[in-house]
C-alpha cells in the first residue's frame, strides 16, 4: 500500500479549483482515459500576463487528482514566465512528496501546464513527437528521454514510475534500458586511460553484480560472467533471458552499453551458449 502525505490526502479529499473556466486564455488536455490518467487544465489571466484563476478536470487516481489540484494552486498569482518554470518535481515537493510509483501524475501536470501556456501564447505543440516505444501506453522515445534527463533517472523501474512506459506487456524493456544507458553514457563519459586487466575484470564483475543482474532478475532473467579476453566479455544468459527472442538486444542495448559506460568504452559482449 502506498504512503500518502497529509497534503496529498487533503488535495484528494478536498480538491481545489475543480471545474473548467469558460473562455479561458490557456487550455490543455493531456493523457488518455484509455491509459488510466487524463487531465484538462484551463486558466485565465488578468490581462497583464498573470494567472488569476485556474481550474482542472481529472480522470485518474488519488495522486492524479492531488497533483492537478496542487498545480492550480501553485500557478495562481504567478506570471506566465514564472509558471512556465514549474517542474513535475516542484509539484511533488509542493505535496510533500509522492510515492515513486505515482510520479507520473506530477509529470502529467507539468505536461498540461506546458501545453496550456503554449495555447495561451498561440504556439502549437506537436502531439506525440518521436517514435512510440511503449505500445501499451503510447509513450514515445522523446517523452522517455525528457523524463530521464530532467529527473536523472537511471533504472527501468524509475522510467515506468515517471512515464508509465514499460508498465504493460514489457516488450519495450530492452529499448528503455538501452535509452537509459545511452543517455547516461553521453552525460558521463568514461575516461580510463590506464586500466589493468585485473582491474578491468574486477570492474566488469562488480558492474554485472550491482547494475545488470538486479535489473534482469526483475524480469525473471539472470546472467553469468564466463570469461574476459582482452575487450571481449563472454557471458551466459540464464532464466527468461536465455529463451527470450530479444536476448541479443538485451546483450547489446543493455549489458554491453552498461559495461561500456561503467568500465571501458571498447568492451564487446558475446554470448556463450554452451
User: In order across it, which strands form the biggest sheet?
Assistant: 1-2-3
The biggest beta sheet reads: 3 strands, antiparallel
Distance between the termini: 44 Å
User: pLDDT average, as an integer?
Assistant: 89
Helical proportion? 40-55%
**DSSP strand (E) fraction?**
15-25%
Give the domain tally.
3
Number of strands: 8
- Spatial extent as radius of gyration: 22 Å
Catalogue the unreliable spans: none
Secondary structure category: alpha+beta
The DSSP helix count reads 11
Q: Report the CATH architecture of the largest domain.
A: Alpha-Beta Complex
Write down the overall geometry: elongated
Order of helices and strands: HEEEHHHHEEHHHHEEHHE
Can you tell me the CATH class of the largest domain?
Alpha Beta
At the fold tier of CATH, the topology name of the largest domain is Sufe protein. Chain: A
Would you write up a description of this structure?
- With 274 residues, the chain is an alpha+beta fold.
- The protein folds into three domains: 6-121, Sufe protein. Chain: A (Alpha-Beta Complex), CATH 3.90.1010; 132-187, Arc Repressor Mutant, subunit A (Orthogonal Bundle); 197-271, 2-Layer Sandwich (GMP Synthetase, Chain A, domain 3), CATH 3.30.300.130.
- Helices cover 47% and strands 19% of the residues.
- The chain contains eleven helices and eight strands.
- Strands 1-2-3 form a three-stranded antiparallel β-sheet, covered by helices on one side. A three-stranded mixed β-sheet has the order 6-7-8. It has a two-stranded antiparallel ribbon with strand order 4-5.
- Helix 4 (88-94) crosses helix 5.
- The longest helix is centred in the last third of the chain and has 22 residues, at 197-218.
- The model has no long low-confidence stretch (mean pLDDT 89).
Amino acid at each position: 500500500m502506498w504512503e500518502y502525505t497529509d497534503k496529498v490526502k487533503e488535495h484528494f479529499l478536498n480538491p481545489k479549483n475543480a471545474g473548467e473556466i469558460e473562455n479561458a486564455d490557456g487550455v490543455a488536455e493531456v493523457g488518455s482515459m484509455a491509459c488510466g490518467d487524463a487531465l484538462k487544465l484551463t486558466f485565465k489571466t488578468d490581462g497583464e500576463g498573470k494567472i488569476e484563476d485556474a481550474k482542472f478536470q481529472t480522470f485518474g487516481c488519488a495522486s492524479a487528482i492531488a497533483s492537478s489540484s496542487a498545480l492550480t494552486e501553485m500557478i495562481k498569482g504567478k506570471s506566465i514566465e514564472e509558471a512556465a518554470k514549474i517542474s513535475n518535481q516542484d509539484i511533488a515537493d509542493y505535496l510533500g512528496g509522492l510515492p515513486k510509483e505515482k510520479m507520473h501524475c506530477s509529470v502529467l501536470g507539468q505536461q498540461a501546464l506546458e501545453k496550456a501556456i503554449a495555447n495561451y501564447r498561440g504556439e502549437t505543440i506537436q502531439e506525440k513527437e518521436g517514435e512510440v516505444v511503449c505500445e501499451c501506453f503510447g509513450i514515445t522515445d522523446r517523452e522517455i528521454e525528457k523524463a530521464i534527463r530532467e529527473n536523472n533517472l537511471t533504472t527501468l523501474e524509475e522510467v515506468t514510475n515517471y512515464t508509465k512506459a514499460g508498465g504493460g506487456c514489457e516488450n519495450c524493456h530492452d529499448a528503455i534500458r538501452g535509452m537509459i544507458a545511452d543517455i547516461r553514457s553521453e552525460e558521463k563519459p568514461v575516461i580510463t586511460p590506464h586500466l589493468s586487466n585485473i582491474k578491468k575484470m574486477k570492474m566488469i564483475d562488480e558492474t554485472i553484480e550491482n547494475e545488470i543482474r538486479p535489473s534482469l532478475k526483475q524480469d525473471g532473467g539472470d546472467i553469468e560472467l564466463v570469461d574476459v579476453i582482452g575487450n571481449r566479455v563472454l557471458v551466459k544468459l540464464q532464466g527468461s533471458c536465455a529463451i527470450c527472442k530479444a536476448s541479443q538486444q538485451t546483450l547489446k542495448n543493455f549489458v554491453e552499453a552498461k559495461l561500456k559506460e561503467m568500465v571501458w568504452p571498447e568492451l564487446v559482449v558475446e554470448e556463450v551458449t554452451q
